Amino acid sequence: MSTGSFGLRSSGSYGSLQQQFQNGSLSMPIQTTPPISSRKPPKMFKEKDSLFHWICKFAPRKKVGMLLLCIVSTAVFAWVLYVGKVREVEDARETTIQNMNIHSGTISEETKMSSILSYQVREVEDARETIVQNMNIHSGPISEEKKMNSNLSSQVREVEETANATTPLPPLPLPLTPPPAPVYFTGYTLPRGNPCESLTLPPPPADKKRTGPRPCPVCYLPLEDAIGLIPNAPSFSPVLKSLTYIHEENLTKSEFGGSEFGGYPSLTERNDSYDIKESMNVHCGFVRGSKPGRQTGFDIDDSDLLEMETCGGVVVASAVFGAFDLIRQPKNISEYAKRNICFHMFVDNETESFLRNSSELGSDNKVGLWRIIVVHNLPYSDPRRNGKVPKLLLHRLFPKARYSLWVDAKLELAVDPIQILERFLWRKNASFAISRHYKRFDVFEEAEANKAAGKYDNASIDFQIEFYKHEGLTTYSTAKLPITSDVPEGCVIIREHIPISNLFTCLWFNEVDRFTSRDQISFSTVRDKIRSKTNYTINMFLDCERRNFVVQGYHRDLLEHWSPPPPPIITVNTSADTMLSNITPVRKVTARRAKERKSKRHRKVNTGSKDTNTD
User: Fold this and answer.
1) How far is CA 68 from CA 58, 59, 61, in A?
2) pLDDT of residue 427
3) Could you report the per-residue pLDDT of 178-197, keeping only the tens digit for each?
4) Count of beta carbons in the 10 Å neighbourhood of residue 414
5) Whole-angstrom distance, CA of residue 37 vs CA of residue 51
6) Are 450 and 456 spatial neighbours (Cβ–Cβ below 8 Å)?
7) Sheet strands (E) in 150-308
8) What region does 587 belong to: left with phi over 0, alpha with psi -120 to 50, or beta?
9) What span, in angstroms and rounded, lies between the C-alpha atoms of 432 and 263?
10) Is residue 613 over pLDDT 60?
């Protein structure tokens, strides 16, 4: 080895290799593929591989790798957050639409709300796609990535706030609470110093010749004050809260008594009707037909039924069947009562013909204040029994009325109905008021008086009394106090239409339908049976107080049979001494007085003198 080879090692090795190729001493295979060119790659390959090359170049570095890992994690977290928020927005939108459908939201507001939310969600989705595309194509600086994430979060928050602001959250289910307690009228007391509080009845008159009934003073409030005290709520109905009525087309006769109109209730059904419960279904007339007054017996024209159904306040009612009474007009009726109170008079075809023939009934079907209601197909042959239908069943004929005042046709109403209701119902906190008989307090005495006056068949009255005695009826005594009488004067009934008072009149009517039509006999039995179950009380006021607001007249047959006073007979004395003319009334001499006259010694009468025996 020469020294020159050491000095040229690097170049010499190359030169030696080249020389070997040139000299042919080293044979090498011939390359068929073209060598790799030293030119720059095309731009397309550079753009595709730039992100990959950038990652490969800087990823081995510790800080850059951690930074990239953080960026990727942030992007994934933003994506998950975005998806969750969008789903919440969609759920909120669906819930809002449902709430708007359930509650009273209009279709236009629902459509508008849904379109706004959909538009905002689409904006967020478009922003998300744009961000994802930018992340796949560019590798912008960290500050731009944070800016995009913050923009995305802000948009999601805006959508959430808009949804919360425009769509209320569904209300939380409220806990089950009991319904509010019903409100009842509980009465009132008059203010101190009111004159009605210190009113006392005067002693009976000292005139021994007048021993019959007479009116006594009654303190009524002024009409304006009475109107201001009209209750806003019904009175309390003890035990009974719901009362319905039996409707039957196929009837079976009961053990005794009854009628098709009343439904022939059996004795078992009668006993069950006195077992007072919270909800009851009882016989109460009108058992057939679609509703009271339509194909039930006691039928009424549809125009009149419509008029009766619209009466929703106070009803004043009376009835004349068989042209038995004259129609008497109420007096001292205020303009308020004329506008707000219904005055209805029930008549049959015979009475209607009498009224038209006497020119009392006009084309408006009114006689003064009374609206005339013509009843067809009467259920009973007895006019007095037919009169018990409107008297006791006004709550069925006037289903919307709150109060009613029944007045027999022989009576003339002389006080405003509002003042009567205030005095005998509201001031006493009562739902039923009726006057007691002026003379009799015992049912047994009343039955004997009815037989003596020929009011009804004696055998029927005896059968009814014996039936009640078997059920426990006893004579009236002070042991029944505070009940003051067992016998009412039933020509006036003042009542409020609540379930318990409606039941009372229904059961009272059933007794009249089964037994005699003398309702004074059955009154105390019905009252005491209901009172034993409910402690229900009735205001039985003095008969003299009743006579204060009604004036009693006479039936038409009595008025027509009473002959007018005979004209005076003029006797002329033709004596020469005196020319005198005497006017002496002629009185009818009864058979008894004629007999007494025959037994007396006749006295001589001087010519020209008056007859001293003018009995």
Assistant:
1) 10, 8, 11
2) 97
3) 888 899 999 999 988 899 98
4) 16
5) 24
6) yes
7) 242-245, 279-282, 299-300
8) beta
9) 26
10) no
